[in-house]
Fold SDR family NAD(P)-dependent oxidoreductase.
Amino acid sequence: MKLLQSNVVLITGGADGIGRGIVEYFLEQGAHVAVMDINVGKLDLLRDEVSEEIFTQQGDVASFADNQRMVAATVAHFGKIDSFIGNAALFDYFTPLHKLDNDTLSDTFDRLFHVNVLGYINGVKAVAPELKKTKGSVVLTVSNSGFYPGGGGVLYVASKHAVVGIIKQLGHELAPDIRVNGVSPGATDTAMASVDGVSDRAQPLNSIKGFHQTAANAVPLNRIAGPKDHAHLYLVLASNALSPLTTGHIIHSDGGWGVK
């Protein structure tokens, strides 16, 4: 039995990394999937390498208009939306406060928070009228950095703490029609781009020397996650059949970071 048979799921930031893992798993479980991402090339690869049945559209989550267009296009293509998965994010390459450039700090803050925080608010606001029709669900990607220090610099950690607040507040505001929850992944084998200009040492996260072993050694389960390892938790929270009474909740998928 496919757990999301005929469900329509809209995913932002779904062209690579954890987002792509969610896309692949949801397709396996029978969902119709729409993906908005800022990178057209990665969207093309997603369709070529995963499935031509994925509906894709380029857009910037920081733009409410782009989110609105994506919602309208998804409904025009599939007829409805049952779940929204917000996943787009930028990293800050572990940059501490004293190394943030004084002259560019405001611009760096604005871009990172526009993607990591406003992007989720834009997405939920744009899709809420459609989710209300289907009694649908929202699942947002948090991070260990939403709960603990050390998983990024001050900007990234602050932004992910803000996402925790969004989930709690919208779980309250949008009830009883829409459930709002989150998944909090730990270190994952993904490239995860940093905001432009935050550090002259910035590189893809999984290209950092020793990253995989260091991340595995940091948690009790002694392994680093693959992009698809978190996907089943998104499915549980997206499904009204599997989590009908769960809202305002965040599931940790972090190898046991919180109990180390």
Summary: The first helix runs from residue 17 to 28. The radius of gyration is 17 Å. The mean pLDDT is 95. The first strand starts at residue 8 and ends at 12.
